[in-house]
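Lecture notes, unit on protein representations.

Consider one protein chain, 460 amino acids long.
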Amino acid sequence: MKSLWAKTAWLNNKWQSNVLLRVDTAGRWSEITPNIGQPPADAEVLPGPILPSLVNAHSHAFQRAFAGLAERRESEADDFWSWRDRMYRVALRITPEHLRAIAAHLFVELLRGGYTHVCEFHYLQHDRDGKPYADPLELSWAIADAAQAAGIGLTMLPVLYERAGFKQPLLRDDQRRFRTSPQSVWAAQHTINKSGRPLLNAGVAIHSLRAAAPESITMLRKLAEGFDGPIHIHVAEQSVEVDDCLSSTGARPIEWLARERLLDQRWLLVHATHSVPSEIAAVAAAGAGVVICPSTEGNLGDGLCDLTGWLDAGVPLTLGSDSHVTREWREELRWLDYGQRLVKRQRNVAAAPKTSEPSTAQRLFSRVLAGAAAAGQAGWGLQVGARADALIVDTQGASLLGVPAANLLDALVFSSPGRPWRDVMVAGRWVVQDHRHATADATARNFETAMGEIWRETGT
C-alpha cells in the first residue's frame, strides 16, 4: 500500500484541497478523500497539485522516426497522399531493433508529455520483404518491450489491412509489410492478451474502409462477438476518402458504418474529420467514440472536425498523437480549440457557459479524460478502482508563476511553452521524478543510432 497527500487535486472536474490518496497492491486507487487537513504520518506529501494523466488513443510508433522530416516541398503540391508515399519508404527500412529503439524513446517522451497509456494502431507487421517473421508478432513484441522498459501502459491494436483502395483489391508493393486477415488480427490480439505482461492489453483495429473489404470487416466483427475490448478504425480523415467511399458504396464512411450496424460502445472512430450532423447523431446513438489527433491532422492538412457537434452530441472524445509531430497532450488540446477559433473567428469555442462550463480547458479535459474505453479501461482518472496513474504539476514553471489557483488548468493548456510534468505515476509507481526518467539518456542514444541507420539506408 502507498499513501499520498496533496494540497490540491483535480477531483470530479474541479480542484479540491487536502486530498489523501491510497494505492493498493495492484496499483489502483483504493481511497481518495478530500479535506484531510493534515497528511497522515505514512503519507508521501506531494510537491505540487496532482492531476489525472491522459490516454493517448492513437499512435503509430514507427512514425516517430519521420517526425519533422517531411516539412519541405519539392513539387507544385504536397498533401496527405504525397506524405504517405514518403512515409512508406521509411516504413520499409525499419527492423525490429529499430522499432524497439524508436518506441522506447517515444514512450519516454509521451510520459513526459502527460500520457501514461498509449494505444498502438499497429500495421507494420512483416519483414522488409513482406514475408512474416518466424514469430508473426515480432514487431508487436518490440513495441511491448519498449513500453515495459519505459513504464507506460500499452494497448496493442493489430490492424486489418488487405487492399490499397476501394477499387484496388491488392496491396501496393510498398504496403507489403502491412498485409493481414481477419483471422490473423484476431489471433494476434488473443496471443497478446494471454501473454500476461504487466500494463499490456489488446484490442483490434481496421485500417480504414478503403483498406479492408466489407466482407472482411464483417468477419472480424463476427469473430469479436462477445469481445469487450476496443475496436478502432481510421475514418473520414480525408475528403478524397469520403468521395471514394460515396462512389464505391453509395454512402459516406461514417454513414456506411452506421448503416451496416457495426457501431457500438467498443468502436473508436479515429479522426472523423469530415462528418455531417446525421453521422454525428448516429455515432452518439450507438455509443461509439471519436479519437481526434489535432497536431497530425494539422500537419497533414486533413481539415478541422466539427468539434462543437461532437461535444454537443455527448460523443466520447479522446486524443491521439498519431504521427508524433507533437508528443504532449496540452498542445493537442490547445490546437483543438485554436483550429476552431481560426475558422470561426471566435474565442473559447469549446466552452459552454450555458451548462456551467465556462472554461475551455476544463470542458475539453473532462471530455478526453472520460475516454478511457479507447484503451479497454473500465475507469480512468483520480477515482477509486482506476489504475493509479497521475501527474504532478510543476508550479514553479515560468508559464505558471503567479497564476491564481482556480485558473491553473487554463494556464496549463493555454500558456506555453511549459515545463514537462514534474512527476509522473503509472500504476502506483513513479516513472518520472523531478523531471527525470531513469532510462531517458540510454533510450535517446539508442534512438539516435536507429535514426542514423534508417536515414542512411533511405538515402534521404
